[in-house]
Amino acid sequence: MAIEVFCDQVIVYSLCASIFVLPASIALLNSFAVLAVFFFFLKKINRIIADWPVKSAHLNLLGRVYSVWKGFAPPVNFLDRPLKFLVLAVFISVVFSQYPSLSFTAFIGKFLKCVFMYFSFIESFKEEKQIRLFLFFFFASAFITVMSGLWQHYTGKDFLKGHIISGENFVPSGRINSTFFGANGFGVYLLPVFGLAIHLLYAAIRRHGSLVLVGVLAFFLVLLLACLCWTYSRSSWIGYLSIIFITILMDRRKALIAGALLLVFIFIFLPSLNNVRHLYLINDNNKGVQVKNSFLNVKSILEQGGSGRFNFWKKAVLIIRSSPIWGTGLNTYTRVLKRKIDPETWWYAHNCYLQMAAEIGIVGLACFLWMLFVLLRHGLSCCNQIKDLWTLSILQGCISGLCGFMVQSFFDNTFFTVQLSMLMWMIFGLMVAVTRLNPMVRHE
After folding, report:
1. At what angle do helices 112-124 and 418-435 cross, to 10 degrees?
2. pLDDT band at residue 291 using 50, 70 and 90 as cut-offs
3. What's the pLDDT score for residue 325?
4. Cβ-contact 146, 227 below 8 angstroms
């Protein structure tokens, strides 16, 4: 038991370290994630060895193999079934991949790493104090990253990695990206933090907590808003609006906060977008959408907006049509596009769901959406059962932040970047861990 307790502690601190270094270092992020997975397996192996004399005494060879296999299983949770189907669908896409070596490498080094990191999370985060510790590291990291973004806005260079403020066509665009490769990546990273900050601030106000805590959370929320605004990331802004909508949907008592955030968006975000990037929210023409016919032409609107995304999506659809069931194989999208050299081609679909369907097929996409649906449905159901206000706020913050994250992913490559994909799986784990704090909640 001492070994298992030690393994759990190492996993908890490794994942806390992972979320802390996530914005700044991919190498450290991977190292801490692999460390957590290693101790997950070490714990399981220790348990299998300890139980082996008793469990294997009356089993045949097949039964012993199954016992070992079952010994590596994570705690029973409501995502078990859809996740098993997702892993199977991704594995089949690797088997039938057009570039097997690329797909197999991504399957082991990216996909399974994230899955086992999720297993490690729900295996070891069993107490509220561990959840709070993780959130402390998450918020501390986000605060440093936000301050680096603010520094970049005023000086032109962030102080963590020395990134120059991003430009478009060699002209400074005014868009901050802090430690991330682009402004969109920074914007979507802020969304889960923003969702958590809103709900925790409401909980602090409602419980008449320390004025210092309320002040710190309110100040942090202002910093998040400033950085989100200065990314001028329209996809992240749409995610921001989704968070506001979900917040009201989950608890109408938060309508005042949500309304204030909506006013900030209307009177600060939108005018600044036109002044700095000379764009509107849904199109690339600062004079508005030019509709050719008198009737609303959806295709015309799409073609004038999204910085060329409509053309990227059409190419993704063509790839999906070429291999609709199992896809072209995990991590093959860029290689498939490069078969036909086109100077106007962007090597990502700028739509995670279309690119996912292209790589792992419609079956794989359906399994992922099934898992996401089960996670959100169960999370919303648990919100009606959790009595502790802080725990409820954490879960609601995760739900709203994840919804914003997923909406933004419809317009970008979020799932296909190392940092943001691992952030997504850690949020999955955090949500499951929070629901497991409540003994009245069903986990199967």
Report:
1. 30
2. very low
3. 93
4. yes
